[in-house]
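[step 3/7] fold_predict: job queued, chain A
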Amino acid sequence: MTASQLIIKIIDDIWKEIYHCLNITTNSTISNPQASTPEPRASICKQGMRRSNIMEFSLLNPRRSRNASRPASFYLVASFALLFTTQTLPTYAFNGNPANNRIAALNGWKSFEIVTQGETFNNPDGSSYTMLGNIDGLGAYRMDGTSDLRLFLNHESPFSCESARASVSEVIVDRDLLRQAIQNAIISPSTVGDTGGVEFIKSMGKAYSSYRDKNGNLGTINEGTFTYFCSGQVHEANTFGPNIGFVDRLYIFGEEIDDGRIFAIHEKTLYQISGQGTGDAAAIQGGVNGMGFDSLENAALISTGEEDHVVMMLSPDYGSTALRLYVGIKGFQTNGQSCGACAGDENLLARNGLAFGSWWFLEGNLPSSGSVTGSFGTNIGASMKYSKHEDVDTNPNNPTQVVMGNENYGVFLFDYELGFQNGKFDAANSSFQVTRSPASAQIPSPDNVEWAADGSIFVTSDSSEGNINRILPNGNVIEIGRTIGSTESAGILDISSLFDYEPASILLTNAMYCPSALHVLINPDAVLTLPPTSSPTSSSMPSAIPSHMPSSSPSARPSPEPSSEPTTSSSVLPTESKVPSYEPSVNPSLTPSFSQNPSSSPSETSSESPSISLIPSLFPTGTP
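[step 4/7] structure written:
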């Protein structure tokens, strides 16, 4: 674009705004997503259309421009008006559109939109891609050898205003430009952060282009069978240290439907993990060889402390509703035969322990308060069967712990003691403890969860208000945002380390329905760990998030001694007992209460304002 064309384009964009502001009637109103009642258009025009969704600025933005022929006199009028305007008009490119913001940030946090359902992006290769709706689970990592980030967006469809079948989109983002947009939003005076017109999206499309079944055979992608892709997570290679965890980087997610499947994406290939193998299950004990079909919300990878196995906690939302572990042996195919290093794309599941393995139910009851100790077995009748098991996530500082949201019963922590003997999982001498967080009373309908490296746990709500809450390590709960427009919040991911920020500084999350939109959330206490660098090969940039790398590599350990200590619970939940899941201590509103005792603050340095009084530590260690 030449300088003269740029000037004409700027004037044209300004004229469009003035045209809409001048051609109004006195009683004309416009929908304002930040207000409970419509505002007069003239009022919004006076604000420079900053929050209006009646039109979009196309300044410096060929992908959103709406070219129109104007008489020369129109440009003269527009230019004259520009000289006398005192309002700074917001500028943005394809990304960060204030009009599309659907997250109302609270307690000092800020938000801005990345991409919205229905937006079409023209890719550099000449193709185009229109973003689908019902965005739910998320994943992100830095692509090898570049500064580009690859974002995964699950679509929980068909549902509501998205008729397309479930799929996974990818958004390729320039990491340095998105970080600049974040820094611009931080200094912006508005809670709807102004990204300064930085265009950081490089391309959009489907996250996969080929398909392999559980045995590694190439097949045809039959998207007509895909239904309700919910939570998801990127798991990095050597997840918990050298040779511990997965061998390859994988994005894993499931279908939230009876007899649903669980999948993995590696590079551009979609792999089906679910399915029964032909190998002898006795070699691995537990249930039938393979990962069964079920309504699997997500899978949390747990450190085994040794190199031969992988263990995942699976949370079925519907279907069996029985919590379980999958224990897989790395280097074995579905027929139970070793494939050594298992080279090649056809052996990806085998080398990562996802071809030959078995499942174990978590036996016991969820506590209604305090903690209980549970065991592992193959009797589904003794398992933790509760409806609405939702997302699960591993503690990055202690990868034998997992947090789970249950929409009906609250937020729970699982602390695993897993033993292996003679190359097998020793279920008899393994156990777990599960604790119900006292914060459950302040969090409505817990859904997606994210355990950050600073000890915070972020929880989204499957409610019309779409609450987004942060549970601090000391147990305080702070509401950091709500959705705009009666929709649940969905997907929550801490991407701070990808931009050299301290943990819990920069998040991704979604407003899920009609239209669905992916957003950035920025902590008021966001702190850079390193000075900004434009080098795409900087060793300071992690390759994926979350890495779940423990502070010290766990060593292989024998089976733990059976515990002789009594159960520490004060009460348990019988299967599907009627326990209220939401007991608000205050009337929730967009202006949270600030009545907390000033002598007790959630953090010595936090700028966030607590919305509830102090509560006991998040997960107490003693008997409650």
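[step 5/7] annotate
Confidence is low (pLDDT under 50) at residues 1-93, 533-570, 577-605, 610-624.
The radius of gyration is 25 Å.
exit 0
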